[in-house]
Write a structure and sequence with these properties.
Layout: H1 8-24, H2 26-29, H3 36-91
Helix pairs in contact: 1-3
């Protein structure tokens, strides 16, 4: 599986395995330009990605909570507007209903 198709946790794990392998075989890979700085850059990116993923998950939870709050508030709003509409229809002449946003004919 390619690293770009894996899930975040899998990508972080793949990076950890890569770091371990690079460190284990650094003597052989150094002639190809792999050095401790290169390995550290991967490790830093892995840590940054983990932190960002954790932050994103927290934001998702907050968004879900706010969405629930919004849906409850909208539901209550619709209920109150409906209640107001019924009261207006009982006491206000139909020709004035448009002033309340009521488009009904009766």
């Amino acid at each position: 599986m390619g690293i770009f198709r894996a899930r975040y946790a899998e990508k972080l794990s793949m990076a950890e395995v890569m770091i371990s392998g690079l460190r284990k075989h650094l003597d052989k890979l150094s002639r190809r330009g792999i050095d401790e700085a290169f390995i550290e850059s991967i490790d830093t990116l892995k840590k940054d990605a983990a932190a960002l993923n954790n932050e994103q998950e927290s934001l998702k939870a907050q968004l879900k909570s706010k969405t629930d709050d919004l849906n409850k508030t909208i539901k209550e709003l619709v209920k109150k507007v409906s209640e107001g509409k019924k009261i207006v229809k009982l006491d206000i002449d139909p020709e004035l209903w448009k002033e309340f946003g009521i488009e009904d004919k009766q």
